[in-house]
Amino acid sequence: MKVVSKSLKGLRKAKTADDKVKLVREAQVATLNSLKYLPKMFVSLKDGKAKAKATADYRRLVGLSYVKLCELELAFLEGDEEKAGKVTKELKGLKKEGHKAYIED
After folding, report:
1. Burial class (CB in 10 A: 0-12, 13-18, 19+), 91
2. Residue-averaged pLDDT of the chain
């Protein structure tokens, strides 16, 4: 997820649409790769049904994030900065939801 965060932060400094698309594509690859792992807190889940449910929800959030990254790529390819801003805001909301649910304090 560090790659995703770094890529999205890099969008602020990116000069061209091509640079932005490259960063978004890096985030997409990292997002898909993250599906190979589960959050550390899952180790402490002993109830099989609760763990399965949490795993499905985690994958749902990662999947939604991937979809939003694809929408962001399209917005940059179309030159639609307004849409890109909207999608970026939605990505931040997904990040917040995921961190609230799957990162221990």
Report:
1. buried
2. 93
